[in-house]
């Protein structure tokens, strides 16, 4: 896959006029903190991993045992070695948030609640907000592979790259052949003319902009070329992505963040096929789903930890991985061996500024969430029941965004006990 110099520069050309006029096109103001959200649609069962509640009122696997990774409690099982391996390697960077109450049992309503803190289409989802507050020079502030997204005012911040070759087709021009309307690509002669025009414009900017302008314009060009190369690499990775294959999708998002293309990324794991979390029957199918999920998350953490960050030693140091589902499942099995929808669930945060090695909140017998002191993160009778708004406010705080700008403090504020 190739891109002409004109196309390379076009990917960063918005910065050239700004530099020539003395403006900071690539200002360091926006936070370097990044967010990856993995959404597990259908309603997972926290009893498999996050909720070590062992009583006659909670049905669970026959070999489930309570375990700790340092001070972080979780549920261990020989059937889920990747869960144990993940917490052994990354437990000190992980916070589990238990007892989140989502006030519905309908999938679509709960999904909007979990992602926006509101059942109505009145506010952006957490990912869109973070992307909307990103450095405006990013080509794809939010890369959306799959999963839910509810943008209102920040819709243009998300790029839905899809899993059917859309992005590679746009870059190499083959997308033109898929149109119902006959469209032809520019001729080689026209490409050459455009290249000469661009060279002339860049030279004029450099001549008029004053001292230091040539160096600044050269830096802008180098950045544009670097980001264009990253975009081509991402497009190549997309050609190998299989729907619902978690590792390949996570590699795409990781490449977008590492290549300076994006601040956020979102995907859904378990959208169809064998990846169905909505286990009204055969609830034991959740066990292999969690095994696959944590295997992929472990690989993602290892990759991010091996890559340099923009303003931190590693990319994991400035990237929060949020993993959640729209609801939980009932504590007891149904006659068909499944579990129905439940309004209390868990979420997990890893990396970045997360204060790891701990669980926030807790569970009462029967899988009811406990009230939480937001400052300490400990269960407290004088605290509050956690809601999706508390989770959203926490994510925004971790991204160096004031939650009060987007979330009514009466509905939820950050869980300070989860923020390092």
Structural features:
420 residues; alpha/beta; Alkaline Phosphatase, subunit A; 2 domains; 8-stranded mixed beta sheet; disordered N terminus
Q: Would you identify the regions where 5 or more consecutive residues have pLDDT less than 50?
A: 1-28
The H-and-E topology, N to C, reads as HHEEEHEHHEEHHHHEHEEEEEEEH
Which class of secondary structure composition applies to the elements? alpha/beta
As a percent range, the share of helical residues equals 25-40%
CATH topology of the largest domain: Alkaline Phosphatase, subunit A
Number of strands: 14
Total tally of structural domains: 2
The portion of residues forming beta strands comes to 5-15%
The main pleated sheet reads as: 8 strands, mixed
Mean pLDDT: 88
CATH architecture of the largest domain: 3-Layer(aba) Sandwich
Task: Write a short abstract of this structure.
With about 425 residues, the chain is of the alpha/beta class.
């Amino acid at each position: 896959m190739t891109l002409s110099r004109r196309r390379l520069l076009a990917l960063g050309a918005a910065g050239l006029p700004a530099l020539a006029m003395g403006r900071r096109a690539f200002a360091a103001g926006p936070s370097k903190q990044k967010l990856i959200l993995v959404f597990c649609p259908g309603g997972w069962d926290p009893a498999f991993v996050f909720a070590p509640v062992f009583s006659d009122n909670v049905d669970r696997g026959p070999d489930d045992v309570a375990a700790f990774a340092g001070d972080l409690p979780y549920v261990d099982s020989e059937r889920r070695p990747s869960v144990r391996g993940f917490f052994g390697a990354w437990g000190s960077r992980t916070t589990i948030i238990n007892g989140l109450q989502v006030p519905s049992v309908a999938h679509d309503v709960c999904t909007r609640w979990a992602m926006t803190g509101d059942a109505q289409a009145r506010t952006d989802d957490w990912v869109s907000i973070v992307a909307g507050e990103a450095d405006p020079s990013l080509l794809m502030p939010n890369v959306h592979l799959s999963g839910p997204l509810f943008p209102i005012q920040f819709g243009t911040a998300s790029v839905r790259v899809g899993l059917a070759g859309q992005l590679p087709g746009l870059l190499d021009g083959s997308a033109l052949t898929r149109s119902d309307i006959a469209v032809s690509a520019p001729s080689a002669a026209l490409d050459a003319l455009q290249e000469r025009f661009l060279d002339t414009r860049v030279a004029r900017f450099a001549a008029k902009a004053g001292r230091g302008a040539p160096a600044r314009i050269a830096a802008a060009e180098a950045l544009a070329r670097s980001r264009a190369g990253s975009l081509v690499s991402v497009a190549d990775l997309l050609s190998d992505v299989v729907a619902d294959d978690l590792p390949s999708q996570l590699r795409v998002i990781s490449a977008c963040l590492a290549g300076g293309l994006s601040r956020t990324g979102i995907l859904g794991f378990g959208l169809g096929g064998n990846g169905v979390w909505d286990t009204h029957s055969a609830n034991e199918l959740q066990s292999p789903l969690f095994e696959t999920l944590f295997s992929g998350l472990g690989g993602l953490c290892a990759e991010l930890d091996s890559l340099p960050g923009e303003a931190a030693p590693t990319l994991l140091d400035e990237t929060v991985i949020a993993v959640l589902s729209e609801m939980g499942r009932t504590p007891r099995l149904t006659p068909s061996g499944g579990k129905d929808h439940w309004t209390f669930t868990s979420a997990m945060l890893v990396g970045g500024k997360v204060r790891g090695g701990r669980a926030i909140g807790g569970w009462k017998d029967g899988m009811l969430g406990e009230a939480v002191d937001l400052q300490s993160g400990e269960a407290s009778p004088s605290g509050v029941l956690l809601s999706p708004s508390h989770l959203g406010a926490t994510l925004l705080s971790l991204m160096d965004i004031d939650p009060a700008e987007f979330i009514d403090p009466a509905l939820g504020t950050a869980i300070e006990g989860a923020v390092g």
